[in-house]
Amino acid sequence: MQTLTLGPSGTYSHRAAQSVSEDIEFTESVTEIVQAVANGAYDRGVIPIENSIEGSVTESLDALAEYDIAVVREIITPIRHALLARGESFETVASHAQALAQCRGYLEEQYPDVELEAVASTARGVERAREDDSVAAIAHPDNAGDLETLATDIQDKTSNATRFLAIAGADERSPAGGKTSIVIYPNSDYPGLLLELLKPFAERDINLSRLESRPSGERLGDYVFHVDFQAGLYEDRTQAALEEIETLAENGWVRRLGSYDTEHVVS
Ligand SMILES: O=C(O)C(=O)C[C@]1(C(=O)O)C=C[C@@H](O)C=C1
User: Fold this and answer.
1) Which among 2, 90, 119, 227 could bridge 136 via Cys, Cβ 3.0 to 4.6 Å?
2) Cα separation of 213 and 119, whole Å?
């Protein structure tokens, strides 16, 4: 299965994608991954969606609201960062913005004067450190190669974990699975709207595992809601809840991304 994920080789996305396929290619944009799967250029994509310290990967959420794809699996993996460099004297730390944020406390305490450089991925940061001895990288320790591992486990919490989604073409959307993701764009605004959108789940005892709002981009204060819940699309209660939500969102749209199961990858 041809799979596209965030590169270059050695990213955490790459590690998660290895549980999906052996045939992996790379790009340095999450939006491009979703786009390439939506237009059929790849069978699968693996994208980071949420981190336990830093929260949403907003580019991923926005791409899921924009392109018609299916979510077919959720992959949760612990994230343990190392500090890698050609030597001990460096002036800049390069990594993915999420990784820099996950190590904020460590960096402020140990290296208060370094500059932080956000790059497309952790593995791209490693390439920067390889090219330039004034740059250190934050990445998975397996990326060290000829670099020195100056510190390990530098994330601010040992429980640091990221949730990835495996995505496929819309024709592979499945009703089966213990979890479902949907995106709601009500395109209206009145007191109690969000309460009304959530009631159909509460009334059927469907547990929400996540609710995130993102700007619709249409006008200030107008939102798209990303909702994950612990039930499958195959269940009657899910279908009934979604029918009610579709009626409430008749000025906008509801996208059913699909049902899926969770895999925990420890690597
Ligand atoms: O840069 C990487 O290695 C990625 O796979 C991206 C990413 C992210 O976007 O959250 C994935 C896991 C970690 O949380 C840090 C970075």
Assistant:
1) 90
2) 25
On whether the CB atoms of residues 10 and 142 are closer than 8 A, the answer is yes
Ligand 1 center to 139 CA (angstroms): 9
Of 20, 90, 75, 60, the C-alpha closest to 183 is 60
136 φ/ψ angles, rounded to the nearest 5 degrees: -110, 160
Q: Which amino acid is at 242?
A: L
The neighbouring-strand residues paired with 139 are 82
Per residue in 4-34, pLDDT (tens digit) is 999 999 999 999 999 999 999 999 999 999 9
Which of 47, 60, 77, 98 for a ligand 1 pocket mutation test, highest count of atoms within 8 Å of Cβ? 98
User: What is the number of other CB atoms lying within 10 angstroms of the CB of residue 247?
Assistant: 10
Probe ligand 1: pick from 34, 50, 54, 96, max atoms within 8 Å of CB? 96
CATH superfamily of 180-258: ACT domain (3.30.70.260)
Return the CATH fold of 1-79+160-170: D-Maltodextrin-Binding Protein; domain 2 (3.40.190)
The label of the residue with tokens 């709002």 reads 213
Match 């764009």 to its residue by tokens: 185
ipTM of the complex model: 0.98
- Helices 193-202 and 236-248 cross at an angle (nearest 10°) of 170
pLDDT digits (tens, 9 = 90+) for 78-92: 999 999 999 999 999
